[in-house]
Structure formats: C-alpha cells, structure tokens
Amino acid sequence: MVGTAVSSAQLAVLNPATHALVDRVPDMSLEAIGQAIGRAHAAFAGWRSTPADHRAEILKEAARLMRARQDELARTVTLESGKPLAEARGEVGVAAHFLEWNAE
Q1: Do 103 and 56 belong to one domain?
Q2: Does 6 have pLDDT greater than 90?
C-alpha cells in the first residue's frame, strides 16, 4: 500500500491448519482505511486518462508476473487460507486469465 503507516499495530496472519504465524499485516483504523480508499480513488483519475493500449500492456505484464510467480503465490494462498495447493495454483491462473481478458 502506498503511504505511511499511522500505527505500528499489527495483526497476525495464521495458517488455519497449524496456527503457525504466516505473516503480520498492519492493523488499520477506520480512518486509515478511509484514507487508503481516498488515495485509490484519486489515483483512478490518472488510470482513466491512460490510453487503453497502455492500460492493456500494464494488465498483460501483471498477468505475466503472476504466472511467473504462480507457485509462490499459490503457496501463500495455501498458507493463509488452508486451500489445497493445486486449487490455489488454479486460482492464481484464473486471476491471471482475468487480467489478460480485461486487457483485450
């Protein structure tokens, strides 16, 4: 996320099967969430004015990066959600496909 953390408070992300710590994420206040939404909304104006062919290239590159890191992303999904690894791999592939589809 773009911006600086307003608090050092964090939430633990636990593996649901083993309860082992996977990672920590910022514990954001409602105010911080509102600020993040505001920044995303403000950034949309720039995205909207970006030529369609350039937006398509960005989406295609994002899909390429997802496919290149499919195993790593799938392992993270599995650790965070308990989802079977094969299903998580498929989920990453579907997400990359949606990016490619939207680029067309």
Answers
A1: yes
A2: no
